[in-house]
């Protein structure tokens, strides 16, 4: 048998039909659904009299629109259009008989945090969702990617997607990370190196000692931002850490089925002599705590660097960099560590898991914030409960952070959690696009520890100075 | 889905790289439960000021481009969020074809589901068409999907590549779901085989 990559193996196990021209029907094991990209798809089913092909494999949770304030049970906390969208999901979940975690359920949270937490996401699966950060689930060695609403409808109706196979890209992070450097710094540094389109057309497999050393939470952070590098999916081969994380989760297999699953899962790795269409290697020791300065996730620099000039770039990036500098209100040559911050946001499907909250709380313990506002939005109700049990919530509250309910919140600012024009935010989310966190808002992406450090000093800060 | 075969129209130049889907349609317009009506909010934050007045310098607000049916843009068009509201807004505005050196994967796929043709051309050819687009309403660009050609207003012809299946669906306005449902036998037999091989799924 010819050697295969992990992606090849998962792909081959899910082709339900292949046409002569290579167009495939890829079978989907898990379809995650949220309120923003699904209403038109369910409406499409109704209009054509179609049903959901596999309701048992379809899991819905509202996350993008939901308020994160403590009084959110009160419907008046939502705008009417947001409420209509959430209610549409309530109705669609009930009418079509799919699994559902409503806002009132403690298990509710960001779809990409709920899926793994509940054991829906398992190694070797195909997972899709009408959300580009579906790449997160690749941390389990699952082929997971975002789809549009027409494809959501297609998966609902047929449990398949029309696909052509992508190319294989290996991203290896060798050696150990230095203290203060996290999964977020890895994934941002990779994008800084390859650019936002470097992964277009590829499925990335992240490997190497520094990836192996990461927890499952860290691996989810790495895969989450594969899409910011242009790759629809990122993958990490499952290992003992993966199996330990999955074992005992509500929807993970049990008993003999667990053993059978393990037998297959242990074959899920790239063969030594597998073919790679592209290889990128970074040394773990070369990665520094990083921040973004511009309005593209590729605008990444170590915190020790200075704001670049547009003339440092070439081609179309010259104009784009100047536009970013103007939008961000930055002057070339300013040390990044002198950029003052108004607001700190800790949360999102990138960094809203328990390990992220622990990392931020470790920096914040006994300190006070020096920014005008700071909020922590746990990725799920269960993350929130665990953080309260571990005493992390009190550390955040004592430091001056708002302790919120679970949701996407200020990552995309569809709910009232938004930046004002010109407001500058240290954010643990994934996109620094113009207007992403609110019209005119200025976003600097970084790790939870770095965001906590910025909260204490009021400016971008090298977290290593606080360790 | 609307068919696409030939198009002759005015092209609006947007010489920017990395035009993301947040730019194309900001999140406040994702709260709709319909597909239609988003054209008025296409590129909303570039197109209107804080008081909702049109910003005259923005390309689609200029008289010569208000009825543009083609967009010429830079690398990595449509990156970021998977929101299909982006092609819905583009289509609702009246744009049926985009020309750029590269696209983000999800956006590229979403276009074909909505009767929009995203054409990939090498940078130097996009540069020629960008200059053509900058001439305004006197310069009409012609697109022939069947022949896979684009003709500039000066008569220069560029050939483009497109996946045969996607081309077929776009030319005939075919519904993907209907096509796939014809293969339900293959899907059922795959499910039976998977139920034995991976019963935990």
TrEMBL record, chain A:
Its cofactor is [4Fe-4S] cluster. Pfam families: Aconitase (PF00330). [4Fe-4S] cluster binds at residues 349, 408, 411. It catalyses: (2R,3S)-3-isopropylmalate = (2S)-2-isopropylmalate. InterPro entries: 3-IsopropMal_deHydase_lsu (IPR004430), Acnase/IPM_dHydase_lsu_aba_1/3 (IPR015931), Acoase/IPM_deHydtase_lsu_aba (IPR001030), Aconitase_4Fe-4S_BS (IPR018136), Aconitase_4Fe-4S_dom (IPR036008), IPM_dehydratase_rel_enz (IPR050067), IPMI_cat (IPR033941). Keywords: 4Fe-4S, Amino-acid biosynthesis, Branched-chain amino acid biosynthesis, Iron, Iron-sulfur, Leucine biosynthesis, Lyase, Metal-binding. One of its GO terms (biological process) is L-leucine biosynthetic process. The keyword Iron-sulfur applies. Pathway: Amino-acid biosynthesis; L-leucine biosynthesis; L-leucine from 3-methyl-2-oxobutanoate: step 2/4. SUPFAM superfamilies: Aconitase iron-sulfur domain. Its EC number is 4.2.1.33. Binds 1 [4Fe-4S] cluster per subunit. GO terms for molecular function: 3-isopropylmalate dehydratase activity; 4 iron, 4 sulfur cluster binding; metal ion binding. Residues 8-458 form the Aconitase/3-isopropylmalate dehydratase large subunit alpha/beta/alpha domain. Belongs to the aconitase/IPM isomerase family. LeuC type 1 subfamily. Catalyzes the isomerization between 2-isopropylmalate and 3-isopropylmalate, via the formation of 2-isopropylmaleate. Heterodimer of LeuC and LeuD. PANTHER family: 3-ISOPROPYLMALATE DEHYDRATASE, HOMOACONITASE, MITOCHONDRIAL-RELATED. This is 3-isopropylmalate dehydratase large subunit. It comes from Loktanella atrilutea. The gene is leuC.
UniProtKB/TrEMBL annotation, chain B:
Its EC number is 4.2.1.33. It comes from the Bacteria. It catalyses: (2R,3S)-3-isopropylmalate = (2S)-2-isopropylmalate. The keyword Metal-binding does not apply. It is an enzyme of class 4 (lyase). GO terms for biological process: L-leucine biosynthetic process. SUPFAM superfamilies: LeuD/IlvD-like. Heterodimer of LeuC and LeuD. Belongs to the LeuD family. LeuD type 1 subfamily. This is 3-isopropylmalate dehydratase small subunit.
């Amino acid at each position: 048998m010819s050697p295969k990559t992990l992606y090849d193996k998962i792909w081959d196990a899910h082709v339900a039909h292949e046409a002569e021209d290579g167009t495939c029907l890829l079978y989907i094991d898990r379809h995650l659904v949220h309120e923003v990209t699904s209403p038109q798809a369910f409406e499409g089913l109704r209009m054509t009299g179609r049903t959901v092909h596999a309701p048992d494999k379809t899991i819905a949770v509202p996350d993008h629109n939901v308020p994160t304030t403590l009084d959110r049970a009160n419907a008046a906390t939502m705008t009417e259009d947001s409420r209509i969208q959430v209610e549409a999901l309530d109705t669609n979940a009930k009418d079509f008989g799919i699994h559902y975690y409503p806002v009132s359920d403690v298990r509710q949270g960001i779809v990409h945090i709920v899926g793994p937490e509940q054991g829906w996401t398992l190694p070797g699966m195909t997972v899709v969702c009408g959300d580009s950060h579906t790449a997160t689930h690749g941390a389990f060695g699952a082929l997971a990617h975002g789809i549009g609403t027409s494809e959501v409808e297609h998966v609902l109706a047929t449990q398949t997607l029309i696909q052509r196979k992508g190319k294989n890209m290996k991203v290896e992070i060798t050696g150990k990370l230095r203290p203060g450097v996290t999964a977020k710094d890895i994934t941002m540094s990779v994008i800084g190196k390859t650019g936002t389109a470097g992964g277009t057309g590829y499925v990335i497999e992240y490997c190497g000692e520094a990836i192996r050393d990461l927890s499952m939470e860290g691996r989810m952070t790495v895969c989450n931002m594969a899409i910011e590098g242009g790759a629809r999916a990122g993958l990490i081969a499952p290992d003992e850490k993966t199996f330990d994380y999955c074992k005992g989760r509500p929807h993970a297999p049990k008993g003999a089925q667990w053993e059978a699953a393990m037998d297959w899962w242990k074959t899920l790795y790239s063969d030594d002599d597998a073919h790679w269409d592209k290889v990128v290697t970074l040394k773990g020791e070369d990665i520094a705590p990083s921040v973004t300065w511009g309005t593209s996730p590729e605008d990444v620099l170590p915190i020790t660097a200075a704001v670049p000039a547009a003339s440092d770039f070439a081609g179309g990036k010259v104009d784009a960099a100047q536009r970013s500098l103007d939008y961000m209100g930055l002057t070339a040559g300013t040390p990044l560590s002198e950029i003052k911050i108004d607001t700190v946001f800790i949360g999102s499907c990138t960094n809203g898991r328990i390990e992220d909250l622990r990392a931020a709380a470790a920096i914040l313990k006994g300190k006070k914030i020096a920014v005008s506002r700071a909020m922590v939005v746990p990725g799920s109700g269960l993350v929130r409960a665990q953080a309260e049990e571990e005493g992390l919530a009190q550390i955040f509250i004592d430091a001056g952070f708002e302790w919120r309910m679970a949701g996407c919140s200020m990552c995309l600012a569809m709910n009232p959690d938004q930046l004002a024009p010109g407001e500058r935010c240290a954010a643990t989310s994934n996109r620094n696009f113009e207007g992403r966190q609110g019209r005119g808002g200025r976003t600097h992406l970084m790790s939870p520890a770095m965001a906590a450090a910025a909260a204490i000093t009021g400016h971008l800060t090298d977290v290593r100075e606080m360790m | 889905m609307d068919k696409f075969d030939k198009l002759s129209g005015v092209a609006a130049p947007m010489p920017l790289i990395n035009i993301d889907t947040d730019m194309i349609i900001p999140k406040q317009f994702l709260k709709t439960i319909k597909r239609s009506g988003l054209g008025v909010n296409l590129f909303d934050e570039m197109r209107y000021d804080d008081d909702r007045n049109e910003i005259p310098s923005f390309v689609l607000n200029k008289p010569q481009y208000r009825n543009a049916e083609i967009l010429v843009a830079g690398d990595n068009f449509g990156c970021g969020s998977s929101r299909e509201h982006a092609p819905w807004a583009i289509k609702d505005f009246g744009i049926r074809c985009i020309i750029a050196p590269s696209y983000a994967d999800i956006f590229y796929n979403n276009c074909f589901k909505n009767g929009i043709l995203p054409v990939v051309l090498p940078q130097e050819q996009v540069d020629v068409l960008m200059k053509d687009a900058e001439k305004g309403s006197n310069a009409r660009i012609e697109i022939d999907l069947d022949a896979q050609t684009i003709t500039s207003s000066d008569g220069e012809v560029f050939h483009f590549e497109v996946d045969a299946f996607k081309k077929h669906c776009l030319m005939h306005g075919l519904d993907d779901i209907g096509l796939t449902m014809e293969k339900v036998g293959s899907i059922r037999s795959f499910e039976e085989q998977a139920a034995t091989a991976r019963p935990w799924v």
